[in-house]
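In this supplementary section we document a worked example of the pipeline. Step one takes a protein sequence of length 303 as its only input; no multiple sequence alignment statistics are reported here. Step two produces a three-dimensional model, which step three serialises into structure tokens for compact storage. The input and output of this example are shown verbatim.
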Amino acid sequence: MWFTFAIIALLCWSGSDLFSKIGCQDASDKYSHLKMVMAVGVVMGLHAAYEIFFNGVEMSWNVIWTYLPVSLLYILSMAIGYLGLRYIELSISSPICNSSGAIVAILTFITAGISEDLPPIALVAVAFVAIGVIALGFVESHEDEELRRARQDASNHHYAKSWIALAIPVVYCLLDALGTFADSRVLEVLDEDSANCAYELTFLFVGVLCAIYVLGIKKQKLVPKMEAPKYIGAVCETIGQFFYIYALADSEHVAFSAPIISSYCVASVLWSRLFLKEKLSWKHYLSIAVVICGIVILGYLDI
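The serialised model returned by step three reads:
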């Protein structure tokens, strides 16, 4: 089932990417990333309450504290990722952010070793996903300035090349990789339902802190039309997180599930082309094809 869970997480998180971009792309709102954290915190908090009170998920302070380092790595990486959406296209940001899955696979192979029963084609598949995702992220740095501007004209959003714009998703990638790697270890001693609720409650707490700062201290107002995409993205994020936690709980396949889930940027790139009018070059499509090949191979091996 790990492959099915990974694919569902892939689709939901790509939807979260799309709506988060729509909700955070307004350069005039310097608190949009914190408002996005607030939205995710509210939705995740509601889901955690449902799981605890209606599905009987056990929750304790010990679970929250045990999972806290993982929760904070994820939340910090997401807040930074939302910030980056103001400065760079989704079709560029998402692939860079989600090359973290390749890093997780490498860390897993280094710490756990490569099983003798592991077919060589599995390593090839992981390599395909890693190479495709990383290559997609670096297309921007090799693209001609005029061609890049031509791609941006259709979306009416122009972004200037800067090291900060590229550094933000890179920082996200590193933090998310550390969180994912730590997650696979912590889930060996924690129930995945309890761990997921602990993460959601922590996100709710961080969301409340952001609300106090944005609404109380900075006196910012929430405009329903501007906030709606954020909450749709938050719902997608929460559903994706639910299935992600189960995919990653299968520790024997973490080196496969992590790259698959991280490749949700492939769908994000397609959504950005269809709905945000961000045009793609042949290099984008070539990188996407490589990633899809890796996913298909991993799915076939599970069958």
